[in-house]
Specification:
It contains 10 helices and 10 strands. It is α/β, with parallel strands linked by helices and about 250 residues long. It has one domain: TIM Barrel, CATH 3.20.20. Helix 4 runs parallel beside helix 6, helix 6 crosses helix 7 and helix 8 runs parallel beside helix 9.
């Protein structure tokens, strides 16, 4: 490997930083490490049993970091992935984020009790855009306090609906409220993860917090560009295509 090519490791560590990460063309990452970036996701309301079976089988085959499902499917995937080491992620306040904090907290506690290792919660976007930053922070804290200390909490800020100033505020508040990650999008309200947003989020939260890119992450080149910009987790339903894209690129 030349001096201009670096292999990225430690992708599952929320303390990972984008500092020193090479450009996408230079990024060299093993299939095993790439899989550790990925939360293999199925959150569509029309998802059926066979699709969740496939989701779990693909996660087992590629050894993805986690599967991400709505809480009603946690018991099924927990049983199917038992003793695999693959984490279970679920969502809170999804996809609008507009329910009251007590409801979000109850949803979070229930998801953890069912077996969720990680939670992706949606902020109260309207409160943020109204300038009620205390409300936004207390909403996140309610979920943080309702989940167990070992539960990883990711805060979805829905970047497509925010100004740059609001994106900065959302990241700052999430960090202050004790979240482990900030995440771009639900994928339900248009837009998706962009390199520019990931770079901005990484600059704001610094190296001690995770950044998850989600929404329209559908191919290998996009995944690598987002990782290069500072993402250390990818939420996507096209995870297999990303892995196959790496093989097609001939990196390994």
């Amino acid at each position: 490997m030349s001096n201009n090519e670096k292999e990225v490791s430690g992708t599952n560590d929320i303390r990972s930083s984008s500092a020193g990460v090479p450009s996408p063309a230079k990024l060299i990452i093993s299939p095993e490490e790439l899989a550790k970036y990925i939360d293999h996701t199925l959150l569509k309301p029309e998802g059926v049993l066979r699709q969740f079976e496939q989701l779990c089988d693909e996660a087992l085959k590629y050894k993805f970091n986690a599967v991400c499902v709505n809480s009603g499917w946690i018991p099924f995937v927990a049983k199917r992935l038992r003793d695999s080491g693959i984490k279970i992620c679920s969502v809170v306040g999804f996809p609008l984020g507009e329910m009251d904090s007590k409801s979000k907290a109850g949803e979070a506690k229930n998801a953890v009790d069912l077996g969720a290792d990680e939670l992706d919660m949606v902020i109260n976007i309207g409160a943020l855009k109204s300038g009620d930053l205390k409300w936004v922070e207390e909403d996140i804290r309610a979920v943080r306090n309702a989940s167990r200390s070992r539960t990883v909490l990711k805060v979805i800020i829905e970047t497509n609906l925010l100004t740059e100033e609001e994106k900065v505020l959302a990241c700052e508040i999430s960090k202050k409220a004790g979240a482990d990650f900030v995440k771009t999008s639900t994928g339900f309200l248009g837009g998706g993860a962009t390199v520019e947003d990931i770079a901005l989020m990484r600059r704001v939260v610094g190296p001690g917090m995770g950044v998850k890119a989600s929404g329209l992450v559908r191919d290998y080149n996009k995944a690598i560009a987002l990782i290069s910009a500072g993402a250390n987790r990818l939420g996507c339903g096209s995870s297999v295509s990303i892995m196959e894209g790496q093989a097609a690129a001939g990196n390994y």
